[in-house]
């Protein structure tokens, strides 16, 4: 099982920016903990971060046929990017959107996620642990899809 972890703008500044909102952990520390959890479950992770919307769209498109699912923190693009939503819809694969902060307790403009409409589920407000929750959710979703595909194959035989 392979999962792409896609991080949006300013996630590379975690541990430095607004620690009262995002906490003290850096993106690299979050990735290291996530990589350890994934390895314990036989899951391969690919990490990508960009501050550029088009690069994120390109990376989502590259996931088609190369990974089983996407975990994405579109960050500020969650609230503005129809292009990222459309890319997620186009690849049509299991996707979990993760937000470190609880977007529903923040400014009004942050309380709506455009990209969530193309995601299987959204995890918001659990800090860096939200990425672990996203990993568990994706492992379960992907396992269920594979089980259904295997059952369908066996029925066809």
Automatic annotation (TrEMBL):
Family the entry assigns: Belongs to the type-II 3-dehydroquinase family.
Site-annotated residues for Transition state stabilizer: 17
Function recorded in the entry: Catalyzes a trans-dehydration via an enolate intermediate.
SUPFAM superfamilies, sorted: Type II 3-dehydroquinate dehydratase
Keywords, ordered alphabetically: Amino-acid biosynthesis, Aromatic amino acid biosynthesis, Lyase
Catalytic activity: 3-dehydroquinate = 3-dehydroshikimate + H2O
NCBIfam families, alphabetized: aroQ, PRK05395.1-2, PRK05395.1-3, PRK05395.1-4
Pathway membership: Metabolic intermediate biosynthesis; chorismate biosynthesis; chorismate from D-erythrose 4-phosphate and phosphoenolpyruvate: step 3/7
Subunit structure: Homododecamer.
Lineage: superkingdom: Bacteria
Pfam family, one: DHquinase_II
Record protein name field: 3-dehydroquinate dehydratase
Active site: 22, 99
Any one biological process term the GO annotation gives: quinate catabolic process
PROSITE patterns per the UniProt record, alphabetical: DEHYDROQUINASE_II
Keyword Lyase attached: yes
Known EC number: 4.2.1.10
Organism: Malaciobacter pacificus
Xref: Gene3D superfamilies: Dehydroquinase, class II (3.40.50.9100)
């Amino acid at each position: 099982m392979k999962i792409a972890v896609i991080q949006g703008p300013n996630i590379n500044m975690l541990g430095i920016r607004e620690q009262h909102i995002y906490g003290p952990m850096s993106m690299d520390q979050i990735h290291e903990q996530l990589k350890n959890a994934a390895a314990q479950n036989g899951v391969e992770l690919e990490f990508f971060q960009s501050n550029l919307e088009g690069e994120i769209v390109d990376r989502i498109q590259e996931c088609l046929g190369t990974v089983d699912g996407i975990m994405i923190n579109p960050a500020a693009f969650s609230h503005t990017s129809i292009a990222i939503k459309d890319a997620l819809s186009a690849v049509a694969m299991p996707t979990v959107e993760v937000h470190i902060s609880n977007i529903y307790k923040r400014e009004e403009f942050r309380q709506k996620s455009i990209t969530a409409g193309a995601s299987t589920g959204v995890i918001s407000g659990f800090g860096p642990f939200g990425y672990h929750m996203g990993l568990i959710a994706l492992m379960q979703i992907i396992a269920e899809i594979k089980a259904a595909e295997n059952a369908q194959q066996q029925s066809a035989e």
